[in-house]
């Protein structure tokens, strides 16, 4: 009888195939399966020589080809397909077997699936995997959630396939239940904010500083040598440097300005709204993609709605440096918000997330990998219960140093009619957060006027209502 495989992968599209190859490349025997058998056959034709793979056509044979307790990575399209695969696997599995959903599942689904599997005597793990197809093959950032004992059984394999930064693998058990997919969701949300901020900087460098795409590309290349050093800044330089073969123009200039999305940014924003956490950067990034999608409406509005008619300015070195600083400060705010959201979710769900570890495992393999995550890790190492990243000296100073430039850029963009929703909402968040007294006193007054929602006083304990439309007297309501 053939030797049993240590782990199985079902779902051999680009992510599953590359993950299976990555695992096999570490000398681990891997069982592979895909709903459509032709894909499994193709996989074996292309990669069988790379490692010890056992391919099966039926789910039953796949399950039987695994040593027990079985460990099965499900890498299929998120949503109903994951439930379908679990339903198919469940009657074929034994008590204690482990189903690992490594796709981009929505965390409430993971919470539900964990309970359903537990009721059937199975262990379930929701695992975030970032890094796209190249990451899956060469070393992703992995965010495993679920039963810690189940994680111990796959830890060695996960640590061997993850990206490594400074000798530390980019994987750690994140927390129970839906914690892994939650952290992956916020990772993707931060990715939205990062990309939107980069797009705003590109817009300003193009439409305010008057530079062409290759020149902007060189600026990003230069920025990638400093505080902004990150995968996304690096590939921005490369994308802007690309020439279109057909027209000879910069390729970005012939790409339609409509951004797609798969929904993880929206999930992050909705969850922040549910938690009551201000998450302006990520949410504005989602809205900006929505606005970009209204291409035909924008074409009409461009001819109808008045703007300030921006005059292009010549390349101005101080403007370029101002934009760099505005980008950095806005990025600090976006991360501060994303980490505050994870903290709130951890408290709400009792996940015990260690935020410094999240920064650690995002330093390599994933799309938002960046030098700057080292600073975030250090901040949480020193202050594990930090309310807000802006409050540690490194970030307090970084934003204080950048704020004049940040404000100048926002004034200039606004004067010239260039939209900068993520830059400006990040500054408004910063200004709002650093204010001891804001204007919500008036909001409370209005709410009390029209709805008797009551208010609190700065000088006395208790709740009060004023009979605004009657005799104007104040009554205590508690
Ligand atoms: P896709 O998300 O395109 O899914 C294709 C796979 O799902 C195929 O193996 C397909 O089998 C299988 N599948 C479907 Br569709 N419906 C099924 C069903 N009812 N039962 C069983 N299998 C079913 O693949 P992907 O791009 O490799 O992504 C896999 C997961 O990883 C997704 O959750 C994705 O969001 C996540 N992810 C992707 C990336 C990326 O860069 N692409 C990065 C990080 C995470 P078939 O061959 O029979 O149709």
TrEMBL record:
Q: Name one Pfam family in it.
A: 6PGD
Superkingdom, taxonomy of origin: Bacteria
UniProt entry keywords in alphabetical sequence = Gluconate utilization, NADP, Oxidoreductase, Pentose shunt
Q: Does the keyword NADP apply?
A: yes
NCBIfam families to which the protein is assigned, alphabetical: gnd, PRK09287.1
User: Which protein family is it in?
Assistant: Belongs to the 6-phosphogluconate dehydrogenase family.
Q: What is this protein called?
A: 6-phosphogluconate dehydrogenase, decarboxylating
Organism annotation: Pseudonocardia xishanensis
Q: Which gene encodes it?
A: gndA
């Amino acid at each position: 009888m053939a030797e049993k495989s240590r782990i199985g992968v079902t779902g051999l599209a680009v992510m599953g195939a590359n993950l299976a190859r990555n695992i096999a490349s570490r000398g681990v025997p891997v069982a592979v399966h895909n709903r459509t058998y032709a894909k499994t056959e193709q996989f074996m034709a292309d990669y069988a020589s790379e490692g010890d793979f056992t391919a099966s056509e039926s789910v039953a044979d796949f399950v039987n080809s695994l040593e027990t307790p079985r460990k099965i990575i499900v890498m299929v399209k998120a949503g109903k397909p994951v439930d379908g695969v679990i339903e198919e696997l469940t009657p074929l599995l034994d008590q204690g077997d482990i189903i690992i959903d490594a796709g981009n599942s929505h965390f409430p689904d993971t919470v539900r699936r964990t309970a359903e599997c537990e009721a059937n005597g199975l262990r379930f793990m929701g695992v975030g995997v970032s890094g796209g197809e190249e990451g899956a093959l060469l070393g992703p950032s992995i965010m495993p959630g679920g039963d810690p004992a189940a994680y111990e059984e796959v830890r060695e394999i996960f640590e061997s396939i993850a990206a490594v930064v400074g000798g530390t693998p980019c994987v750690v058990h994140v927390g129970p239940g839906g914690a892994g997919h939650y952290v992956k969701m916020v990772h993707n949300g931060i990715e939205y904010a990062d990309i939107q901020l980069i797009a705003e900087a590109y817009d300003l460098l193009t439409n305010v500083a008057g530079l062409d795409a290759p020149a902007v590309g060189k600026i990003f290349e230069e920025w990638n040598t400093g505080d902004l050093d990150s995968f996304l800044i690096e590939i921005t330089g490369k994308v802007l440097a690309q020439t279109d073969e057909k027209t000879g123009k910069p390729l970005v200039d012939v790409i339609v300005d409509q951004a797609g999305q798969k929904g993880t940014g929206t999930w992050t924003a909705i969850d922040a709204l549910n938690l009551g956490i201000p998450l302006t950067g990520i949410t504005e990034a989602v809205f900006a993609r929505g606005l970009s999608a209204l291409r035909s409406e924008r074409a009409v509005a461009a001819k109808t709605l008045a703007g300030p008619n921006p005059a292009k300015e010549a390349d101005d070195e101080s403007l370029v440096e101002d934009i760099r600083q505005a980008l950095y400060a806005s990025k600090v705010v976006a991360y501060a918000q994303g980490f505050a959201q994870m903290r709130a979710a951890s408290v709400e769900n009792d996940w015990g997330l260690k935020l410094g570890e999240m920064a650690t495992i995002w330093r390599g393999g994933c799309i938002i990998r960046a030098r700057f995550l080292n600073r975030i890790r250090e901040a949480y190492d020193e202050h594990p219960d930090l309310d807000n990243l802006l409050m540690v000296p490194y970030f307090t100073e970084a934003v204080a140093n950048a704020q004049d430039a940040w404000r100048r850029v926002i004034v200039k963009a606004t004067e010239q009619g260039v939209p900068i929703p993520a830059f400006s909402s990040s500054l408004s968040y910063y200004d709002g957060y650093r204010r001891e007294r804001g204007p919500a006193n008036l909001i409370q007054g209005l709410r009390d006027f029209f709805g008797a929602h009551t208010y609190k006083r700065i000088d006395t304990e208790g709740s009060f209502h004023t009979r605004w439309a009657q005799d104007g007297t104040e009554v205590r309501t508690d």
